[in-house]
Amino acid sequence: MRRRLAALAVxxxxxxxxxxxxxxxxxxxxxxxxxxxxxxPGAPVxxxxxxxxxxGAKGVGALDSLGCKVVAMRTVAVDKNVxxxxxxxxxxxxxxxxxxxxxxxxxxxxxxDVGGAIKGERIDLYTxxxxxxxxxVKNLSLAKISAVKVGTFKGCxxx
Length: 159
What we know:
Layout: H1 2-20, H2 27-36, E1 45-55, E2 75-78, E3 87-91, E4 108-113, E5 122-129, H3 135-138, E6 145-152
Parallel strand pairs: 1-5, 2-4
Antiparallel strand pairs: 1-6, 2-5, 3-4, 3-6
Helix pairs in contact: 1-2
């Protein structure tokens, strides 16, 4: 039953992908290519400047602006006038970055926090405990990244 529901959830994306690539014989392949390129049919794309923040820095607490626990390499602070809180973002530039648990990042982030310096087309990626937590992300070009809205969530994001 779960597989059937998951397949049904993908159908609108396949239809949108298929319409966006008229004449294509591979709508599922087109969808996968769109996701890998950081673009979903009909999904808003934000071109942003990113900065990093970590626990232990001045003004950074254990909870985000929703009252949820901040999660290393998943929590992102946004200007809620640009990107609404509770938005799931796919940031292709972070795919493959090493996570605190040793796994590689899949590119998904959760907009749950805001910050006084986060205004306009800017986001702040939470990296974890201490300045050393920023090392895996420091090699990324943060001056210009693209974030794609891929969904929303209720409550707190998964840890």
